[in-house]
Amino acid sequence: MTVDLVVRNCTVVTPAGRTPDAGVAVEDGTIVAVGRSDRLPAADRVLDGAGKVLVPGIVDCHIHNREPGLEYKEDWESATRAAAAGGVTTVVGMPNTDPVIDRPEHLELKFERGEASAHVDFQSYAVVTSENLDLIPAIDEAGALGYKIFLGSTVGGVPAPTDGEILEAMARIRETGKRLGFHEENGEIIDYYTNKFQAAGRNEPIDHSRSRPVIAEQEAVERMITFAEETGAKVHMFHVSSGSAADAVARGKERGVDVTAETCPHYLWFTEEVMREVGNPARIQPPIRNAAEREKLWDVGIDGGAIDCVATDHAPHTPEEKLVDDPFGDTWEAISGFVGLETEVPAMLTFVDQGRLSLEEWVRRHSTRPAQVWGMYPRKGSLQVGTDADFTIVDPDREWTLEDASELHSKNCVTPFVGESFVGKAIATVVRGEVVFEDGEVVGEPGYGTRVDVD
After folding, report:
1. Which residue, 67, 131, 167, 403, has most beta carbons within 10 Å?
2. The overall pTM is greater than 0.85
3. Could you give all domains of the chain from N- to C-terminal order, each with its CATH number?
4. Residue 327 · residue 147 · CB < 8 Å
């Protein structure tokens, strides 16, 4: 028997453990064997893993690819090119585009654009507002992975539903079997402090962070968990930035609520001092927190298990929008968000190198668990025979520094990770059996990526 592709001479790592001198065999885009290198079949193409680590394809369940409507920032092609270069095999796009993804035809447009130009596989959330509660079943039929509600002010100005409408949305979404995620910040608290600080002339980058205090995040998490407990809905907390919010998630899990949560590498890596060191390029919502909250996020979220997933909130903006030429200028003139698709794997592997978590735990949170949370498992995130042949090969020992944002592949590449040093890097990315990144080059064709179908 000869198959399409075999990767040999790797250490294969899954959440269940690691197998040395092993690899994967692929036929017609599907995994047909996983095991010792000497037991794998002959193949039309053989990749030598050179002793590196092979893991299930990384799943980033939170990116802003900006298409449709905001392609000057990013689009499906450039976002998924960056994903391929970063070792990410599946991405999920956010709905605050133009138009917003709030009805079936807008979702279908987003899917069509992805099918035309994506390098890796993809999906999308749909947004819930006061105007589209009755469209929830139709959006489900159109194939949305899940739903999102923006509780606080965010890029794109998507208005939050009222609490009563959120309860109604939860009841309707529960009937679809899908999950509802939140940008969980209390909008009234944020608006109060933003207006207060602006009136007082407080306009430094750190003032943006202080205008969005931890209590705004913690309260929103606790309120949505209470609503989920009442309605029986499955809920998810996007981009948890603080240990206090992770603690609220942990309490919800203890009560038996079906609540999942994600955090991002920047919340685990930086403290709010980055706002004084880098300025507006590090501006993001929720903001990066102080050292005590970061350590609590590690203790409760990662070590304690409150955080299910790692994602990026990859959010490209132009250098002008980020005030790159005036990084400590009036923060209220800047915009929040920065790129992350090519630094997420290196950041997490650096934490592995530091002993903050094991390779197995990293894989669970960055591949297997996001696929499970969003209904894509075992097709994604498993390395099981019969599933999509998505995998990432990493060199966990490679030491390198991101010297310049121009090394990245997004359309706009502002990031506070410029100048940061890492231990670990993706060296090859395979999507459904096709090598889309190797030897430092994106080699896959735009349009190869396809929508991940979900029940």
Report:
1. 67
2. yes
3. 2-54+387-442 (2.30.40.10), 58-373 (3.20.20.140)
4. no
